[in-house]
Amino acid sequence: MRGFLLSAALYALVPGIVPGTEPEGTVEKLDSAVVSTSRAGETTPVTYTMVSKEELRRTNPLNSLPMTLAMQPSVVSVNEGGTGLGYSKMTVRGIKGSQINVTLNGITLNDAESQEVFWVNIPALSGILSSVQLQRGLGTSANGPGAFGASINMSTSSVGSNPYGRVDLGYGSFNTFTATAAAGTGLMKSGLYFDMAYSRGMTDGYIRNAYADVESAFAVLGWMNQKNSLRLTWLYGDQHTGITWNGIDLDQYAADRRYNPAGEYYDQYGNVHYYDNETDNYTQHHLQLNYTRQFTESLLWSTTFNWTKGDGYYENYKAGGDSGDSIVREAMDNHYFVLNSDLRYRADNLNITAGVNLSRYDGDHIGKLLWNNLLGDSYDYASHHWYFNNGLKQEANTFVRAEYSPLDWLTAYGDIQYRGIWLDMTGPEDDQIPLDHSTQWQFVNPRAGVSFHWNPRHKAYVSAALGHREPGRSDIKENIKNAYVAAQAGITGEGVSLRPEKMLDMELGYSYMTEDLSLSATLYMMEYWDMLLETGRLTNVGYAIKENVDRSWRRGVELAAGWQALDWLRADANLSLSMNQIKDYVEYVQNVDDDWNMTGRTTEMKYGRTTMLMSPSLTGMARLAFSPWRGIASNSLRTTTLAIDGKYVGKQYLDNTMTDSRSVPTYFVSNLSLSHDFRLSGRSEHADERDSHLSLSLHVSNLFNNMYYADGWCWKNVMESDGTVVDGIGIYPQAPVNFMFKVGYSF
Fold it and tell me: pTM for the complete prediction?
């Protein structure tokens, strides 16, 4: 394995000497080459939307990227603490974060073990991105975990021609403060450029203990000429947040929707207290070095080396039990190395891209006992680990993609990818159950499609793609634990190995676009075999526990429209209708004894055809933007814009049994923003990038003060003594109407 990785790495780094003419390409081509590999082009038969830098900038400064993307088709976003800062997550077509492939400059951000992206670890991304492409479905070949519903391709690559600077400050409800500063040299005559940005966000949060103190930094040092581009990028994220993943039950919601039980304990007199360091803390450093070489106008090679260093911990108070009250700290310390190299050939009617991606993730999981009331203060806690285990995951990924246009109005697309994954786990977990496990997977993922673009206004496409995806560490870990508990009880046949999942994705799309009107429709069929679907339960650190489902599907239609009705009025809307079903769902519920200890046995419950959890059959959005003086004023009044939007999300079940008592009701939430720019200096009547501006904006979230919750989880057990089913839920209340004011200065 090591020899294979080394040989492949050397092959990727040395593209060979390619003869050709002198290039006439521009530095803009070289600058964007680092992210173009995983992105779809205008004629690629893939379902996607682009989010521009301008759209990212004008969103609520409090929002994380999932909240910023909330208005895109089939997207549902939620924040655990009830606002936009802190732990946020999103689904696309009902698919959760662990099945969404996320890349930054072509390098995956998904955690190699859980396959999740923890957006709180890299806050304020919207302020440093030049664009985001959101692909729905399997999309194009991408690095890292397989996309099983969507992929998000983010780019920081954007070199301007002039120096710039920007400062943004925001303050709002729940004592929320945000600050961002950015500056850059632009491309200098020597070919050098430098960009940097820093962001800080703090909030008390809406629910108790939902405070957040997050910061990020970004710096780029680069050099370009006509043939070469060398770019060093550093991205830093640091977050300190209160634990909010527990949620609350409906009785608590009715009594006090801002309540959060995290850290709660009772003293010897029965008085309630809250541990003051019930926190989650994590720091990440991403370092990327990219070299791009344009050999000829048709041939370009790009290679990126990435190193991500992450470490952090969560600390909480565990009350009660046979082992007494304890304060525990569960930590992670990991390194992630990636080598990504691709070669691109572009001619008049043929584009070919081939790439190699190699990665190695080495992660330690460390448990520390900080205090226990039975052991007392004199115990030497520092010298003992509660537990220690390691996960080593290595991957080799290669692909070839081609687009051929035999006619001006026709493009044929083909894409084939190989993924090899090797996983080794060693050491015990927090309950001292050994996790020693080694496995490997080999996948081949083909894609093909055709697009028709018979004139600039019309485009249609049809595509089919086959994808495979491996289980995550948490999925395997929980399975090992279940098998261990059953074996200790003398029971065999429990906790069988999880199977990789497979999906066939078929997409049919059409779009019509003029200067003032855009319309699009997408029909999709995502057919799953052995899908790893959430059960509704969470681990003790908030991960969703999954199980294989033999046969399931997501089928639906997505409609979107944008209309510049008048110079001062724009309307946008989208609607998604879907069926997200399991053919024959069988639930295996853990049995417990009268003391709530697992017995190692499960009870089988058959439900037939059901709807998948957290997969609304209807979502929709509408937005109106008014700029009343755009056509009649010659001063800064032209920039005044009032925008109002609304998002509707249909009913969502918390597990796969379609039980009303375990569900999230439909909800509708609206937001309003008012913005105005003052042009302070400039050379022309109309603002351009050389002007200096003072901008003011007011953002009102949940405009109509809707008291709703947008996410949740559930649990269920069977009492082995009498077969009684007992269950419960946890939900995440969202904040009522709240405000954010922002002032910015740029030059």
Answer: 0.89
458-469 and 387-407 beta bridge pairing: unpaired
Other C-beta atoms lying within 10 Å of the C-beta of residue 6: 11
Q: Is residue 140 within 8 Å of residue 44, measured between CB atoms?
A: yes
Q: Cα 625 vs. chain centroid, distance in angstroms? A: 28
CB-based contacts of 601, cutoff 8 Å, min separation 6: 486, 489, 491, 494, 591, 720
DSSP conformational letter for 248 = B
Q: Could you count the other beta carbons within 10 Å of the beta carbon of residue 595?
A: 6
Residue from 242, 386, 246, 362 nearest 311 by CA:
362
Tokens standing for 242? Answer: 């209160």
Q: DSSP for 546-601, please give it.
A: EEEEEEEEEEEEEEEEEEEEETTEEEEEEEEEEEEEEEEEEEEEEEE-TTS-EEEE
pLDDT, mean over the chain: 87
Among 250-264, 424-438, 466-480, 657-671, the least confident range: 466-480
Query: Nearest CA to 713 among 113, 248, 395?
Result: 248
Q: What CATH code would you report for 2-746?
A: 2.40.170.20
Up-side HSE of residue 37: CA atoms within 13 Å toward CB? 31
Residue boundaries of the structural domains of the chain? 2-746
Query: Residues for the chain: how many in total?
Result: 747
Eight-class DSSP state of 143:
S
Q: Provide the β-strand partners of residue 703.
A: none
The helix (H) or strand (E) run that includes residue 273 is strand 272-274
**Dist. CA 676–CA 165, nearest whole Å:** 19
Q: Which two tokens stand for residue 372?
A: 């226990």
Flag whether pLDDT at 115 surpasses 90. no
Return the minimum-mean-pLDDT range out of 167-176, 466-475, 557-566.
466-475
Question: Is residue 445 a contact partner of residue 417, using CB atoms and an 8 Å limit?
Answer: yes
Q: How many angstroms separate the first and last alpha carbons of the chain?
A: 52
Residues 325 and 316: beta-carbon distance below 8 Å? no
Higher pLDDT, 214 or 483: 214
Residue 735: HSE in the Cβ half-sphere, 13 Å Cα cutoff: 25
